[in-house]
Each structure stands twice: as structure tokens, then as C-alpha cells.
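Pasting as-is:
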Amino acid sequence: MHSVKIGLKVLILVVGMLIGGAAMALTLTSSAFSHNGSIPAQYTCEGNDISPDLSWGDVPDSAKSLVLIVDDPDAPDPAAPKLTWVHWVLYNIPANATGLPQAVAAKALPAGTKEGLNDWRRAGYGGPCPPIGRHRYFHKLYALDVVLPDLGRPTKADIEKAMKGHVLAETQLIGTYQKKK
């Protein structure tokens, strides 16, 4: 009987944690493609080269800002990758933001959001445009315990250095693309 009471107490504790106190994981989704799914051509160099919509949730309560980095670790050839190509860098996204609309322009970013440089050496989104094969595009979202200082036009490496030791949570959404032409 004693072990039944202990077992029941553990079960009640676990259920209570699941209902009221368990930490949720940071999430990132898009209505344009599913995780590990194919990115539609409209978001690439073969289409309108616009950013897909992104939505996120379960940002830690203690987060002060978010960072979004989109990159391709399969460049130039997924059979023999040599570098990671950066497609988009955003930082100081307000922690209370819940996403970005499709084709978001710089002036429509959430207040306070700053843009870094992609590997075309410009700010803003640059869509998939793989020279050969099917590439993976990692949309990485980080919740930070600080608002980063104004870094000017930082690269991905600059952002990663600045956020070191400040990441509370992170998640990623991976899409794939292979040119049709």
C-alpha cells in the first residue's frame, strides 16, 4: 500500500508539472513549407525572391530579444560542401514579436529590429539559389537574455560573437530547394 501512495504522489506531481509548470520549447514554423519540406519557388531566385512568412512561439519569459539567421550549409555543392552561405540576418527582434509576414520589407520589421549583412554583402533576405543539387536552408531563431548593442551592419559571425553566453533558447526550421532550370 505504501508504494501505491508514493506512486500516486509521483503521478500527481508529474501531471501537475505537465499542466502548469513545464517549460515549453521555442518553436518556429512557416505556412509556406513544413520542416524538412521543399521551399516553394516564389521564395527563391527562380521566383519573386521574397521572404516566407515565419511564426514563432513559446519564447522564454526572460527573453529580451530574438535573433534570426537563415543559412545554407551545403554551398556550393551538397555532395562536397565548402562553406555556409548566409541568406538573412536579423537581430534585436522584440521578444514579444510572434513572427514576420511574407515579403517583409525593412520598414515593416517589428520596431527595434536591426538587419545584418547576408553573404551578398547586403541587408535583407536573399532567397535560395543553389548552383547544383538540393540544398538545405536553416532558419534559426535564438531567444537572448539581452538586447544587443547597435552593431552597424554585422555579419552572421559578428552576431554569433555578440550573442555568445546570452542564448536562452533556440530552434530551427529547415527547408530544402533545388533549382528547376
